[in-house]
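In this section we walk through a basic example: taking a raw amino acid sequence and producing a predicted 3D structure, encoded as discrete structure tokens. The instruction is simple. Fold the sequence below.
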Amino acid sequence: MKFRRGRLYDAFFISDIHYLLNKKIKSHKHKELFQLLDHLNKKEVRFDNLYLIGDIIENWFFSADRRLQRVKGKKRFNKLFERLDRLSSGNGKKYYVVGNHDTTSYLMRLTPKVEHYLIERGWIICEKAENETLIAIHGHQGQYNKFTWMGSILVLRILHVFASAFPAMFKFSENFYHKHLNRQDPSTVEETLHYYQKLSKLTHQDKKVLISGHTHDFLCIPKMNIINTGDWVKSNSFVIQDGKKFSGIRMIARKEFKKEFVLNV
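The resulting token sequence is shown next.
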């Protein structure tokens, strides 16, 4: 598919960017993300609303706050958010939905300096964004309750200290977390349906479109009005809303895009 020059859409949704993650530690595809955002800007494509649906700024095993304080780190933040801000039409809102990798807070709060940075740029920080048509939530709420979250974060903070002091331990810390503490993503049809039924109940979805990320599956379940934006690192995918139509799009190469699904509501 191609984007028509000067087109205005209702909303843009993307998740699981894991920004700031060092490519030597784990592949992140930030270069491809900038190609996407630059292409949309050059085409003068604009969106009334922007939704960043969690795991945008990587904050596990190192401090995003400390990186933001550095001149080089501040430039990296600006490199992403200046591009995102340019896509806003100025007629709607910009939502930063907090995901589990965005924070090591027991209360699911962003770090103070990151929160201040985003608020200054006009972003609304929340765990759930909702209007009369849709609900946007990261999705980890379908795998964690308050108690399991707090327990996992306690161990994560301990690993965080070791990895901060000895960067070589990052991979060990990450592997330990995923093996012993991380809730496994649904892998079968039955597990997937159970997960989204739980998420639907938790968010009081009713007839609204529920858009999430987290599980890394780029999918649409029309009967449930469910959309997962996929994992940018894994699938280079995002979702666009045009009125009552939601389109799941994958970037397959520079300036090349494929529409994977359409949900009409």
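Looking at the output, two observations stand out. Helices lie at 30-42, 64-69, 71-86, 112-120, 146-165, 170-180, 189-203, 232-235. The first helix runs from residue 30 to 42. In the next section we compare this with other chains.
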